[in-house]
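Subject: design request, 186 residues
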């Protein structure tokens, strides 16, 4: 079983509004990550919410997801990762972790992470685009360690601390842009 976790709890402080709700290509930003995971046929999609929770839940709509509240979202992205991992099904072998502010992550990217995991059984599988790293997949064997991270670094701390855990999958295009500011929408 492969899970997907969408981190959508942040305050969007640099954006100035709840960016998870901003429409990009006709749908709320949070739906792009959900749709990529769903199209890749992951077995469960968990969306971690926090800031402006009710509005983000409404933007998710009636898509088949498990919505998890992170009351500690102000303490950084690692708390959302922990909340998502805590909610994951017992049968989950690995989880694809996506950010709600990267609408350019495609179903093919999610598929590449899953294929990379199935081929190597690495603790971490990370996409590497022509201009830098992208989303990652975490295996069950490191869920506990990932669940004890702190701050805004997320799984990058684990990758830096344990490079031997990381299997990189090359993607021959630039990394999907994060939408952090209103200018990023342009």
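Subject: RE: design request

Done. Sequence follows.
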């Amino acid at each position: 079983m492969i899970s997907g976790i969408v981190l959508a709890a942040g305050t969007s402080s640099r954006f100035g509004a709840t960016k998870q709700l901003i429409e990009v290509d006709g749908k709320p930003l949070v739906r792009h990550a959900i749709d990529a995971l769903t199209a890749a046929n992951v077995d469960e999609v968990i969306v971690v919410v926090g800031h402006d929770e009710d509005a983000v839940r409404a933007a998710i709509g009636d898509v088949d997801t498990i919505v998890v509240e992170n009351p500690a979202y102000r303490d950084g992205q690692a708390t959302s990762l922990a909340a998502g991992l805590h909610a994951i099904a017992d049968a989950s072998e690995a989880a694809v972790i996506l950010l709600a502010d990267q609408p350019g992550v495609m179903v093919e990217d999610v598929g590449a992470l899953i294929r990379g995991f199935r081929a190597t059984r690495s603790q971490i599988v990370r996409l590497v685009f022509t201009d830098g790293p992208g989303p990652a997949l975490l295996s069950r064997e490191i869920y506990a360690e990932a669940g004890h991270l702190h701050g805004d670094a997320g799984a990058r701390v684990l990758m830096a601390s344990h490079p031997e855990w990381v299997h990189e999958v090359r993607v021959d295009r630039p990394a999907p842009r994060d939408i952090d500011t209103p200018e990023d929408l342009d």
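The CA atoms of residues 16 and 181 lie 8 Å apart.
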